[in-house]
């Protein structure tokens, strides 16, 4: 009887572990992150999970105030991350939200600078282009 109970407990533990791993791979473990910037439309953020699932977020260009590199201190070291600052609809000078990018992949600063420069170039083209109604 004790052997049967032990094997049932072991089987249940293995089953729960497998379910937890599947949930982790499907909802938590991000394999790849990308940012697509189209000056006339907006920004598309895509996260590809280990299970193959993809999550996509689109931000209209009219909501984007700026793209910045932010820094934070985490566990005795400085980390850098790219952020999108969203314009506050009620206050043109204000910021309503800060959207961090590449939180799972954590690219190095030199990679972030390349993405930052490309984003700034597109944002500057949008600001200098004549607005059509």
UniProtKB/TrEMBL annotation:
The keyword NAD does not apply. One of its GO terms (molecular function) is glycosyltransferase activity. Residues 34-103 form the Phosphatidylinositol N-acetylglucosaminyltransferase subunit H conserved domain. Keywords: Glycosyltransferase, Membrane, Transferase, Transmembrane, Transmembrane helix. This is Phosphatidylinositol N-acetylglucosaminyltransferase subunit H. Signal peptide: none annotated. It comes from the Eukaryota. The chain crosses the membrane at residues 6-27. One of its GO terms (cellular component) is glycosylphosphatidylinositol-N-acetylglucosaminyltransferase (GPI-GnT) complex. PANTHER family: PHOSPHATIDYLINOSITOL N-ACETYLGLUCOSAMINYLTRANSFERASE SUBUNIT H (PTHR15231:SF1). The keyword Repressor does not apply. Pathway: Glycolipid biosynthesis; glycosylphosphatidylinositol-anchor biosynthesis. Belongs to the PIGH family. One of its GO terms (biological process) is GPI anchor biosynthetic process. It comes from Nestor notabilis (Kea). Pfam families: PIG-H.
